[in-house]
Specification:
Elements lengths: L5 H18 L16 H13 L1 H4 L3 H13 L3 H26 L4 H13 L1 H4 L11 H16 L3 H14 L7 H12 L8 H27 L3 H10 L2 H6 L3 H28 L7 H21 L19 H10 L4 H9 L4 H21 L8 H22 L12
Helix pairs in contact: 1-5, 1-6, 2-5, 4-5, 5-6, 5-8, 8-9, 9-11, 10-11, 10-15, 14-15, 17-19, 18-19
């Protein structure tokens, strides 16, 4: 695991795999629209849309990079879109590895974190409708750079990187309460929470907001976007009505939230319930939970909840420490004697079987019959995710009844 190119190779292989998945002829992605060829017309409309509509026009960097690649290489719109976004997807995986190492992960743990990142629903299916990723790969790159600078207290780098993350997508703002919580918990001494040093740290954490505010004011003034911004803000709450206006939209909205966060919320709850609450990495879990509590209602009330990527933002606090924090929980799935224990206490299998019969019905009948996730692997992903969560819970219950070897070994 100490072969230096390995993390770059892992990032490259996952990036190629995700691109291949999006280009399969039976897949309905933004890139090919159920075809074997790149949908240049649709991707051109997406680029134009993000330049003309007020809330997207103030996030110009991804569109700028796509257009510059088109000018430089003579690319068509689809080629420019794929080059920029998949290069950024590759770079984000490399930056995640770097941040994991800063957080004292081993090479194995850091590479495992990369795998979890790329296997997350909102990344694996990033450019499928209704996920519709556009600025997220660039936003993630800047946020991972900002988080790295934050952990090293290199404020001269943190402030510009987080400001650029805000320009990429203003939703980056919702991560700042988590960073403030992390910084406060890092002190570890309630008597000095309001010390001069802490005030200085908090000031640096929120400083990018001021710079982004200046950018936003200049953008609205220069491009005369005040009225368009007012109209956009006034129309935001209509999203809530659309999210739940009928059964299909309601199921799609709640399933979107579930697909983005369910395994991470489950593991976080199991971890905090069963292990030492004073461990240093817990700060990241608490920051994740706080950001979920802030971000999820905002998405539900002011955005289209079917766009799963919007719920995934808090995962920036989990991806860099996943293997460090959750390895003991994941390792539970590998204990052979637990499966033997299930056979010995077969009565425990009955609720497990019942849950997964419902899981199968929901994923492959109810969900698909509503017309959700056609020509994708959404149903299969949801089924496997539910099966994994229910299996882990079953094994955890068995582990409380029989002795198992210690799961505290490092990964």
């Amino acid at each position: 695991m100490h072969w230096r190119p390995l993390p770059y190779l892992v990032a490259l292989l996952f990036t190629i795999f995700i691109l291949t998945l999006h280009m399969l002829p039976n897949m309905d992605s933004m890139l090919n629209e159920n075809n074997t060829r790149i949908s240049h017309g649709f991707l051109k409309s997406q680029i134009d849309y993000h330049q003309e509509i007020a809330p997207f026009a103030r996030r110009p960097m991804t569109s700028y990079l796509i257009e510059r690649s088109m000018d430089l290489f003579g690319f068509r719109p689809g080629h420019g879109f794929i080059l920029i976004n998949f290069t950024l997807l590759f770079l984000s995986g490399c930056l995640l590895f770097r941040l994991s190492k800063i957080l004292k992960s081993t090479n194995r743990q850091a590479i495992a974190n990369q795998c979890v990142y790329y296997a997350s629903f909102s990344v694996l299916f990033a450019f499928f409708p209704p996920v519709f990723s556009y600025d997220e790969p660039l936003q993630y790159c800047f946020l991972l750079l900002a988080f790295s600078a934050f952990m090293q207290r290199r404020w001269v780098w943190y402030v510009p990187f987080f400001t650029l993350a805000l320009v990429s997508r203003e939703t980056s703002l919702l991560l700042i309460p988590g960073l403030l919580l992390h910084a406060t918990l890092s002190n570890g001494n309630l008597s000095t929470v309001f010390s001069k040093q802490n005030w200085k740290t908090w000031l640096f954490i929120v400083l990018p907001i001021a710079f982004y505010g200046l950018y936003l004011f200049a953008f609205i003034y220069v491009f005369d976007q005040l009225e368009a911004t007012r109209t956009e803000m006034a129309s935001r709450y209509s999203c809530f009505i659309e999210n739940f206006e009928n059964l299909t939209n309601t199921v799609e909205s709640w399933t979107s939230l579930y697909l983005a966060l369910a395994p991470y919320l489950y593991l976080s709850i199991m971890y905090l319930k069963n292990y030492d609450s004073r461990l240093p990495q817990n700060k990241w879990v608490y920051s994740f939970l706080l950001t979920v509590a802030i971000n999820s209602p905002i998405v539900i009330f002011t955005a289209f909840a079917r766009e799963t990527r919007l719920f995934a933002l808090p995962l920036l606090f989990i991806w860099p420490i996943f293997a460090q924090v959750f390895w003991r929980e994941v390792k539970l799935l590998t204990h052979v004697n637990l499966y033997q224990g299930i056979l010995a206490k077969w009565i425990l299998l009955l609720p497990f079987i019942g849950v997964n019969l419902i899981n199968y019905w929901f994923c492959f009948h109810f969900y698909s019959d509503l017309g959700l996730g056609p020509n994708t692997y959404f149903s299969e992903y949801l089924f496997v995710m539910n099966f994994g969560i229910s299996l882990h819970f079953l094994l955890f219950q068995v582990s409380k009844r029989i002795h198992i070897p210690s799961t505290t070994s490092s990964f």
